[in-house]
Design brief:
This protein is of the alpha+beta class and 205 residues long. It has one domain: 3-methyladenine DNA Glycosylase, Chain A (Roll). The protein contains three helices and eight strands, in the order αβββββααβββ. Strands 1, 2, 3, 4, 5, 6, 7 and 8 form an eight-stranded antiparallel β-sheet that branches. A hairpin with an 8-residue loop joins strand 4 and strand 5. The longest helix is centred in the middle third of the chain and has 8 residues. It starts with 21 loop residues before the first helix and ends in a 14-residue tail after the last strand.
Length: 205
Amino acid sequence: MMPARRKVRIRRLHRSELPIETIKLARFLIGKTLVHDLPHVRLSGRIVETEAYIVGDAASHAFRGLTPRNKSLFLDRGHAYVYFIYGNHYMLNISGQREGIGEGVLLRGLEPLEGIEWMQRHRHTKSLTELSRGPGRLAAAMRITRSLDGLDLCAKGPLWLGTATKPAGKIGVSVRIGITQEAHRLLRFYERGNPFVSGPKSLRV
């Protein structure tokens, strides 16, 4: 069994600390921590890249209304919405509005903190920067699947949002990546210069 690294001091975020506005939440989450407590190890990382998806946004899974698949997006802010895409990737979103309003924040980049050896095992790579740079890699490294869909990330449970382990650096804003509809919207936020931010270099500096 691989040894787990020393635990980082992280406090679980309360829902009252999350902005009640999805775009503000997407920016707020930069520098905060995502934690997945598995039976054998804690996986954690700093959130360094997000994208917001809001009401009226044709790229949002909630654009056409509530469905059995996207119902977690309509939960109160701070719940997990996990979906499967391209036949081989899970992606993790966080609901961003009051209950009944379908908005969310896609987590696109994570800087690993704990359980790095296990993340390397999950991703079948030793390259640190390739572990969780991009939403599909992030979910694979953090062992996130549909079984976590709908989970309250502010309540006691295996997957949760935590406080920052260090202050976030300068935050950049850009167009969104990897979508065809309304990609021009300036709804992507990232920690400038962080090697775990995805996308072309021009959208990372």
